[in-house]
Design brief:
Blueprint lengths: L1 H37 L2 H20 L4
Protein name: YkzI
Organism: Sporosarcina globispora (Bacillus globisporus)
Length: about 60
């Protein structure tokens, strides 16, 4: 019974984290778009790195 409860809690935590990551991804994509519009190379690189980290975590959570 204890293992079942832990599994349910983990799944709920994973769903919440996935939702947060998707919001972060949307924000970072908007930031990247702005950086591209302004031709700001440094901000573009930073956004791409953040997006890559988000992508890796989503893959780890099997949300993509």
């Amino acid at each position: 019974m204890k293992q079942l409860m832990n599994t349910v809690k983990k799944k709920n935590g994973d769903r919440e984290r996935t939702a947060v990551l998707r919001l972060e991804m949307d924000y970072e994509l908007a930031t990247l778009f702005d950086a591209m519009s302004e031709k700001n190379e440094d901000l573009q690189k930073q956004s791409k790195l953040k997006l890559e980290k988000i992508r890796q975590e989503l893959l780890r959570l099997k949300a993509l």
